[in-house]
Amino acid sequence: MAETPSDAAARPSAPASGPSVSASGARVVPGPTSGASPEVESNAGEPSDRTWTVLVAALGGEGGGVLSNWLVDAAAEDGRRVQATSVPGVAQRTGATTYYLEIGPRGSGRASGDAPRPEDGSGSCAGPRGGVAGDLAAPAGQRDPRDRGLGPDSAEPVMALLPTPGNVDLLVASELLEAGRAAQTGMITPDRTTVIASTHRTFAIAEKSAMSDGRFDDERIQRAVRELSRRHVLTNLGRVAEQAGTVLSSVLLGAVAGSDALPVPRRRLRAAIERSGIAVEANLRGFDAGCGLFEEATTETSGADTHAVPSGPGAGSASTRLPASLAARLEGLPGPVREIARLGVERTVDYQDVRYGSQYLDRIEGLLAGTGAADAMPGRGHDVAREVARHLALWMCFEDIVRVADLKTRRSRIERVRSEVRAKPEQPVIITEFLKPGVDEWCSLLPAWLARPVLRAADRGGWRRRLNIGLHVRTSSVSGFLLLWTLARLRPLRRGMYRFRQEQSRIETWLERVAEAHATSAALALETARCANLVKGYGDTHERGAGNFERTMACLPDCARASDPATSLRTLREAALADPGGSKLDAAVKALRAETAPLERP
Q1: Backbone phi, then psi, for 321, in 5-degree steps?
Q2: Which helix (H) or strand (E) holds 386?
Q3: Residue 157 — very low, low, confident or very high, per pLDDT cuts 50/70/90?
């Protein structure tokens, strides 16, 4: 049980109904029987040998496979030869999940009303000869086992299994970073590619595990997609799906239909949803909502589409109702500081109690009184106070065992998990928490007079880092829920716990250093405030970060003597974040002291 919420695996206890995707590497829809003449809609100027390429980049569980199935079905019903391959990614946003489709010209596939496949197997399969790592199946699900691919003299085109740079007609991305990945690999070109991408973000592991702010620049990704694509729609499609009361895949299919980037008529795409027979009404609402996106704006629709900052401290938590005394004190703060301080007060009250929220405001007001009404930086008044207010709220609400247990047993969290796995109201859901508490985490609950000797004994015995016991706790069971619920009820005792007192001491030291740095310059004070970002995580990560923080704070006098104090401190902070082991910080400290040594008084 660590100080950050552990990963939880949740699954419906019975398989939820819905479209499924085969794990096979490729699917090929065979051509029609001889003599079949599909009824299709004409497309002026369409080359007879034209093949359209589609790349769907999605996250697991966002319906990329369902979207691929719908496109395959619609293209086959339109009398076209179509092939789809998939490359499954891995969990936790460390790899992309892609689906690649090639849609051939009319007359090489199955159209509505075609005769069924003859039992003697006289119809030839339109799949690549002997080179498909997957099933060769009729769209209706009836496979003729005698189909073995094309003969050597066949004039049918051979379709590729994977996309190639510069050869993608349509890119569909269920999340913004997936569009960025496609742009980086050359899959988007200004003379050919239409891009449909959602601007909502699901952070990758590299972003969440970075020592500093590891988030990618969303605006930079959007700008690259705009410049590289021929046409594009960039908007929060997740929000569109939520407003329509449906899933993302149906909105994406509607956007594909509205873009007219494929030769398949809209009615075929819409009919694919109806033929699936699953959540038809909701999926059609999503289809209609997505279909109108290109009609509303054929360029970007969300250059300013950003995520709102959550007002609560945890996912799904509501904004805390503040007592009148705290609300009145917030109104007395300067305008640039008030909003971030309001979020900080809500977070600290939710974390502990009203008295803790009052202590948060005490610290902000004390800083403002000690550093003056505004920072001495033209056009950037109260930057130091704002930065302190932000980091102070995060630091005061450090995640310990009590916090983790509290967040995992909240009703809002359980409801969110049920929503994410799309469980029906009457369907039970099993939630398993994967926890790995160590000696430090358990000692954090003890009073200081007891925790210190236990930790010293653990260090002497060499078992402080070895006693990390993996636990699998089912919070969907009565016993598992009661275990975490009981730990969460220890919150009133938190002020006497070892970790709480340790963090409060570091916070007070940090605030004193910010005030001292402000006497040199507001720029140095701002960099000192940002050094709070060094203390994070739990276990070894927390210990290394706290050590780097204390070393950096010890170098403040040296920074104040440097030619550029703020830049000197920033260099130390960035070195500590770049290398948790501390070697880069060692080199930066050595360089700083070499610079300032001649300036020291004898």
Answers
A1: -75, 115
A2: helix 383-396
A3: low
Token pair, residue 409, equals 């047993």
CA distance linking residue 14 with residue 20, whole number of Å = 15
As to burial, measured by CB atoms within 10 angstroms (0-12 exposed, 13-18 middle, 19+ buried), residue 155 is: exposed
Q: What would the DSSP string read from start to end of 182-239? A: HHHTT---TTT-EEEEE------HHHHH-SS-----HHHHHHHHHHH-SEEEEE-HHH
SS3 content of the chain, % helix, strand, coil (to 5): 50, 10, 40
- Cα-Cα-Cα-Cα dihedral sign, residues 418, 253, 186, 221: negative
Asked whether 529 and 388 are in contact (CB, 8 A), the reply is yes
* Domain 8-12+26-32+48-114+124-296 architecture: 3-Layer(aba) Sandwich (3.40)
What are the residue boundaries of the structural domains of the chain, listed by start? 8-12+26-32+48-114+124-296, 308-397, 401-496, 523-602
Name the average pLDDT for the chain.
77
Q: What are phi and psi of 20, to 5 degrees?
A: -125, 160
**Sheet (strand 97-111) strand order:** 134-136, 26-29, 78-87, 97-111, 52-58, 170-173, 194-198, 231-235
Q: What is the pLDDT of residue 93?
A: 53
Q: What distance in Å separates the CA atoms of residue 58 and residue 348, rounded to the nearest whole number?
A: 36
Instruction: Tokens for 487, please give them.
Output: 């730990």
Provide the residue type at 490 as one letter: L
Average pLDDT (512-540) is 88
**Residue 300 in contact with residue 199, Cβ under 8 Å?**
no
Contact 82, 32 (CB under 8 A): no
* DSSP symbol at 320: P
Q: What percent of the chain has pLDDT over 90?
A: 34
* Cα four-point dihedral sign 395, 397, 399, 402: positive
Whole-Å CA distances, 29 to 104, 176, 231, 264: 11, 31, 29, 15
Contact 177, 222 (CB under 8 A): no
Distance CA 528, CA 511 (A): 9
Concatenating the DSSP letter of every residue in 577-589 gives: HH-TTSHHHHHHH
What are the b/e assignments for 385-406, b being 16+ CB within 10 Å?
Answer: bbbbbbbbbbbbbbbbbbbbbb
Structure tokens at 427: 């369907």
Which two three-digit tokens encode residue 329?
């004190």
CA 431 from centre of chain: 21
d(CA 435, CA 219): 36
DSSP annotation of 169: S
Mean pLDDT confidence for 138-163 = 52
Closest CA to 589 of 544, 550, 558: 558
